Amino acid sequence: MTVYQSSFTIQSDRRPTFEDITDRVVESMHNSGINNGILLVYSQHTTCSVMIQEAADDVNYWGTELLMQDLVNVLEKIIPTCRTEGQYLHPGPKHIQAAAGRNEEAFWSLNTDAHLRSVLMGRSVSIPIINGELMLGEFGRIYFADFDQVRARERTVRVQIVGELL
Amino acid sequence: MTVYQSSFTIQSDRRPTFEDITDRVVESMHNSGINNGILLVYSQHTTCSVMIQEAADDVNYWGTELLMQDLVNVLEKIIPTCRTEGQYLHPGPKHIQAAAGRNEEAFWSLNTDAHLRSVLMGRSVSIPIINGELMLGEFGRIYFADFDQVRARERTVRVQIVGELL
Amino acid sequence: MTVYQSSFTIQSDRRPTFEDITDRVVESMHNSGINNGILLVYSQHTTCSVMIQEAADDVNYWGTELLMQDLVNVLEKIIPTCRTEGQYLHPGPKHIQAAAGRNEEAFWSLNTDAHLRSVLMGRSVSIPIINGELMLGEFGRIYFADFDQVRARERTVRVQIVGELL
After folding, report:
1. pTM score > 0.90 for this model?
2. A57-71 burial by CB neighbour count: b if 16+ within 10 A, else e?
3. Could you report the predicted ipTM of this complex, rounded to two decimals?
4. Is the Cβ of A122 closer than 8 Å to some Cβ of chain C?
5. CA of C96 to nearest chain A CA: how many angstroms apart?
6. How many CA atoms lie within 13 A of A13 on its CB side?
7. Residue A40 in contact with partner chain C when CB distance is under 8 A
8. Cα distances (angstroms) measured from residue B130 to each of A96, B133, B141
């Protein structure tokens, strides 16, 4: 039994960003040498999510897969994009003051929608590894989502595996 | 420390299907001999979910537990059942073409609602095993949900356990 | 490789309760001596959730962090607070009869909203431990949520860790 860990980075945009990270996760699994176990794909960012979904094949003019744009459209109905302060309770004055102390622009904190969308969708997926194969089925792909629309950033994805070597 | 894996199948219907799989998961745990660890119940199908919920006792005319029907009613409000193409962006023309290449009926791809409901609800649950007992509390039951309403299918549920033998 | 388990309790209120449990989880990790692995924070209660979120700094008059109150406001729109029987299908007559057999007040079962909110938000989070550090990033905090609004109760949070000792 062993623990394996790796990470890689993603560049997000100033709109909900979805990146198919399946190949990088599978490569991590191969590098680990772990043949049977549990693989955790995890984002430590509180405006991001990790999800398993079918590939949509088609994309919109922005390059977003249509199934992911359908998801954004659903989320927009229940958690509208935060366009100005006062739309949500958060961020309050103490939060803005703390952000200023970190030399952050005030508008960087206008990502309440992203915090809420991310916690609703979840920050990780756990996937069985069986006989050296990641159990995604025929159509399952792993996506990293960054819901933050106020700034483009480099984001870290972590792959943590606990299991048995071959 | 060891890894144990098992799987079993579920027959879904052409409506949201919820099946109480607690007994089969507990049986897997007993078969594993693992006394302390983490148990993952996982669905590799991108229109299905695994959830922990209280048993409702009462069912509707379809046999669906009332708490699960309440869940379907909530989901219907935010992610309406897909009744025809064009209601959601997905499936687009490339997706339909790819499905035709797999000899799939076009209407089989009209399950966008199920893809979205499933990713919102999550594809797995992780549960502690302590001294040979699955920590579900007095009322927790494990359900497999198939949200796909376009065809009835056989579905696979995987149980993956990492932990210590007695 | 080893398995470590611990638990602690939370006192909830008759309104959605959010408690920052980060320090207690990190203390459990330190007590475990596990340096690399997967840490599961889990609630066995079917009206509760465990979530990772940024701290909001500001709180409302009830002491609820503003980002969590924003979450409650979103949930209220899609899963309204259950105020009387008949608003949701659950609880049905058999459920009320079973509850009466456990000497429960009938109104204790009017927590359908909490069951639905909890299963939507999820019952656990899994977090990597790398070189003795819990991977929460700069802003991630772990919250225990009790969505049950019909009674104040003591709740159990479980921390289960699988990994390698230093």
Report:
1. yes
2. bbeeeeebbbbbbbb
3. 0.96
4. yes
5. 31
6. 8
7. yes
8. 44, 5, 17
